[in-house]
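cron nightly-structures :: item 1 of 1
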Amino acid sequence: MGTQGRRPPRGSGKGTPARRNKAAPAQRFPPPKPPRKTAKVVFDAPPAEPEEPRTFRLGAVPGATPGKWIDAWKQRMPHVPLELAPIDVADQRAALATLDAAIVRLPLADDSLHVIPLYEETPVVVASVDSHLQAADELTLADLAGEVVIPLSDDALGLIDVPGAVTPRFSAMTTADAIAMAATGTGIVIVPMSLARLHHRRDVDHRPLADGPTSTVALAWLRDRTTDDVDTFVGIVRGRTANSSR
């Protein structure tokens, strides 16, 4: 009876669960995963400095038509206004000192300038609509013998030797005044076609002068003032897109 009141030893009876093996510490606690690499966000980066307000000043001689280039500039450089400044051919070199660039007429020989020829203009003869010269579709210098060639103070073509022309009895005048005089039948005017169109009147007409001197229109700017804005405008004139390399 000495065994009464004693608890039976563990696992000695039926239905007693089997003892579980303890897992090794390494199995119970797997090694921690390495930390994930994340991009470092910098919250104190200085903001980009805004560009200083500026204006691109483009000069243009009479007859020049930079409209398509100005439109392209407005699309590509909306934050830089373009100011178009009319200049005279006689003063175009001096005007470049106050401009970023200018559309000029050659010749303009100066080592301090960059000059890019753009296109050639055909010369025309402007005469009264009643002139016999209007009967031809095209004229030559020989056709102008006996005509009074009105001299111009703002001549874009330079002195033209017209064999047999009558020496005028009046001094040089502006293209606008000369064309107004040509309308009276007093004489004729020889100018690039764009100037004939610029000063068009209903009482005059013009005909191409086949063997006359052409006028070269060019883009010019000072070499020591070649800025990023100038490079951008040159790219526009040359047809480069915003993504094209210089």
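cron nightly-structures :: done
The first strand starts at residue 56 and ends at 60.
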